[in-house]
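Re: weekly structure request thread

Next one in the queue (505 aa):
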Amino acid sequence: MSHRIVTTDAVIVGGGVAGLSSALSMSGEVALVSKSAFGSGGSTPWAQGGVAVALAKGDSPELHARDTLSVGGGLNNPHAVAVLTSEGPARIRELIKRGARFDRDGAGLVFGREAGHSLHRILHASGDATGAEIMRALTAAVRDRPSIDIHEFTNAVDLLVHDGRIAGLLAVDSSGELVQYVARAVVLATGGIGRLYARTTNPIEATGDGVAMAARAGARLLGLEFVQFHPTAMDSDLDPMPLITEALRGAGAVLVDEHGERYMTGVHPDAELAPRDVVARATWALIQRGQTPFIDGSAAVGGDFPDRFPTVFAAAEQAGFDPRIEPIPISPAAHYFMGGIDVDTHGRSSIPGLWAAGETAATGVHGANRLASNSLLEGLVFGSRVGASVSASVLPDPAKVPIPSVELAVDDAVEAAVRSIMWEHVGIARDEAGLSNAVRQLTELERSLGQRSGEIANMVLVARLIATAARARLESRGSHFRSDYPDPGVAIRDSYAGASMATVA
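Done, posted below.
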């Protein structure tokens, strides 16, 4: 395979909110590597729910932090939470100056409420197109920055490491040519792992590439067992499953069973606005009993659906439902990854020269369960901090390293097997037998791939690491529910890290 060399100061892998925020706060020459078309790939454009920020009257970063800690299962890093909530307002104001248009009324910005929040603090754009609007503003800003070189349709293959330090990145471009990026720093902002599951709201790009590359390079990983399942994906044959934003429940929509009876009222005092893990388990339990759960917004939203929730309305129409007058069948689906590459609040990993931001990073800001609409804010806040950290670091020139041979794994059967194993055994409810079965099957799949690399290999590796971490945590906490260990243990962050450590070997 032919190859070419690109020399730059830093490489950012990922074109979502975290990657773009990193690029915009970084000095020097930057190569921005994106799997798909710049501005359209990844999870950010799909984000419906909004962005949480303490800007409303009567709100404060301290109150936002309290809510974040409340749903995190006792495993949040309080310092990371304070950084998120205190720096969030400045990042949102900065975004507005870049041209982001959030929903307003005559009094100013409109704030909604979602599960786990004690106040109305969620900003939206065009009702349920918040992520797309944030991406519009950020991509325009990036295009205006001559020092950022955009590399579209390029798949990162592996980190290049020499003497325990980053030397660059290996990737394959759209023509199939191998590209060696020679750089002092690499930022991984590759997003989540939803594609590892048969039911997910994530785009097809969410294959855990950043975590896999970091793991192979020997970086420390954290919290891999904590996968958040969104309770209200539209139950249809579409893959990915259409997300029904949490903002709809914030607007008064209710969850009902086949008989039209609300099933969350007896489960949690906040009913439909309980933390996501609680709602997801209650919804899954209903399905396990052979019933079909629904979300009903006909009374709360009714004829206003096309204007207030246009994305949800369009998806429902495509599936043959009219949410203005009837409920929509739902199912939990893999939605967000709280685990990832263990980093500090500046995004620095355990490997010199390697930073991570956004969903692929684990600062501990989310603990065992992410508070609704904190993800976009996380990308803005920590992405900006990563860019500043890289710029402030004195890094040696990268070493010249030999380019390994690359054979990409392309096997639809392996991908389908991974997704089935993860949904069946490493999903909403887990136990020793299922997790051990998953580890065994995934290990066999890994061996079958040999030295081949690429997305499929990344999926298999990260799936095995998640299953291994889930088997090691003998308790139920946040999004991690063990039916054989239903009670929480002692919430110590050191044990959080220890239970999550899973090696490549």
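Confidence is low (pLDDT under 50) at residues 492-505. Residues 237-333 form a domain with the Flavocytochrome C3; Chain A, domain 1 fold (CATH 3.90.700.10).
Next request, please.
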